[in-house]
Task: structure prediction
Amino acid sequence: MKTRKSSASAKSTSPDRGQVMDGAEILVSCLEREGVEVVFAYPGGASMPIHQALTKSKKIRTILPRHEQGGVFAAEGYARVTGRAGVCMATSGPGATNLVTGIADAYMDSVPLVAITGQVPQEMIGRGAFQETDMFGMTLPVVKHSYLVWDISELPRIVKEAFYIAQSGRPGPVLIDIPKNIQVAKAQPIYPREISLRGYRPEKKADDVAIQEMIGLIEGAKKPVIYCGGGVITGEASRELIEFAERTQIPVTTTVMGIGSFPETHPLSLKWLGMHGSVYANNAANEADLLLAIGVRFDDRVTGKVEKFCEHGTIVHIDIDNSELNKNKLVKLPILSDLKYALQRANAILEKMGRKRVAKNHTRFPEWYAQIAKWKAEHPFSFQDTEDVILPQYVIRELYNLTKGDAIITTGVGQHQMWAGQFYDFDKPRTFITSAGLGAMGFGFPAALGAKIAFPDKQVIDIDGDGSFLMNIQELATAHVEGVAPKAIILNNQHLGMVVQWEDRFHGSNRGHTFLGDPKDLKRIYPDYVEMCKGFGVKCERVLHKKDVPAALKRLLESKETYVLDIMTPYTEHVLPMIPSGKTYKDIITEPHTPRTKTA
Amino acid sequence: MRHTISILVENKSGALTRIAGMFSGRGFNIDTLNVGPTLDPTTSRMTIVVRGDDKVLEQVTKQLDKLIDVIDVQDFRDEEYVDRELVLLRVTATSKTRPEVMQICDIFRAKIIDVQPETLAIEVTGSESKINKFLLLMDRFGIKELTRTGKVALPRSND
Result:
């Protein structure tokens, strides 16, 4: 994790005083000092003064989302691709509550985020004032930390702490709630040079003894697997991980959050594991005699029935968050450490032992590789190709071929999200941007917008479903007006596909409000995304035939502005493989669903 | 199993809610909770009695430690600490039963702090087992009302 340490280098002990200005201007000056280049902010009565101050900033670009949820997801998109804190802002009451889903999302996926909300004036707090909500109280369970500013003199310290907390250790969201009277009060800010938080010590470094013990376990292993997650990406430890895997020659599987932390085109890659992960990754992790869990949290979507997960293997768990060790799974060797540090130490020790890096043709665990190769051959990610019907998997594979993997992909939540992970190969960290832990639909497009603002020269594509895309479709306006050009591919099956899949598998295909089209006119594609995009001033084309897909994708990629493809796909397609919730890898479903013929 | 945990926290508004919320949000059970100032006015000390096995206790301790307002967490094991609880109670005591109530109070070094025609208000401090024993004995006379501080604890030495 990159933490800005501008203050640490300043040696002067005299206080750093600013001009007399109002609270809103102090806030903006503090944001500038943190190096903030963009904020996603929707104004309202209780945050107007901050917007007034933002209009005077020469350093900060203020993006007006069309809904606060779009704003917070865009800030997350920005944060996830850069590693720096995303900043979003909203007014009190409904503006603030609209941020909550995004804050919870950042909490679940450990995304550095600073959320700033306006609050009613101090003397009105607790009286049920217009647009008053106890935002501090409401967000307590989903923030890493939070502040309700009670004195204007505290503002510089609070902002500095907020960014430090959000970006250090295991990153997360920090809320700053600022009453309006503080925004308009005048003061001379004193900017702190140092941060002193006696209850927060994020630097964790593994003891060499523990690292040696881990290496000892590797020396004795016959079927080892590395299972790594988002921690490797937030810990900026991807390079060290690749080196570690090559020195030990251990196969690597990632979680969904960890996608990109290890190149999926690498011979040691097993892609990702879990409910919709590869058969070979699930088999390998479960049958491993040594599982090296690095920056992961043994999420239920990964482990299935957690007691049965890697039941007979020895587990080593390295994480920077002490509370993750032995939380979901009791392990043999828990190591509390910054991952980059731990892997660097391990690599140094391995080098001394003469374990050289091997990038291909691995030889260390021949029987294990043979077993894995067999699983790979038996159960690759695959789909039944078709003549004319467009399968979502085909679209994603085609997109991968056309982009050669060089793009940032964001997703909504559901089937398309899983297929995007399965059929696009990710070789670099921070290129697969998805709401993994919270599973928040509507994430994809605003996240793509935020990512594109961070990297305007990169191709940023939201692979979305029709349900998810509709949830934040208003952000097309933001993209158009701001001249940002994220692209979107709607895999439109007119249904909530993942729920439909569960209905097919577990509820006899009884549809419980999973149809998104117009029941009065089943032949019509509804809603009409082409027309809607037109209303937003955004180019969009509908694709109905497989033969038209490659050319349409090319037009999307070549467009200099936002471009949407509305690709019609069958709702009958299931994401495979699938380990049903609470089951084990042995219960994995690999066969397509055969619809039951109706008998009257 | 019950454990006594002592937590040193920043004396800031919201710290108590954050800690209490962590317990409810993660499904941990609190038996008693006591908060008060310490020698340093910028900190408070909370003493919490938690129910759960060692695994639960490990998680409680780690989750508490993760909170930024929490400066220090001590998990008191047997014999390493002294603890007391203070209880105020009102017990039915007629002229007939009053002497016996007072006698029991004497034995337990409890104080009579108010006398009414039909009741006595009593203050008693002590360890958990002493308090329980005392309350059991008082129950016979009829406890009308009761309020407890929850356990407060202090380590025997400061290492």
Residues 82-155 of chain B form a domain with the Alpha-Beta Plaits fold (CATH 3.30.70.1150). The mean pLDDT of chain B is 94.
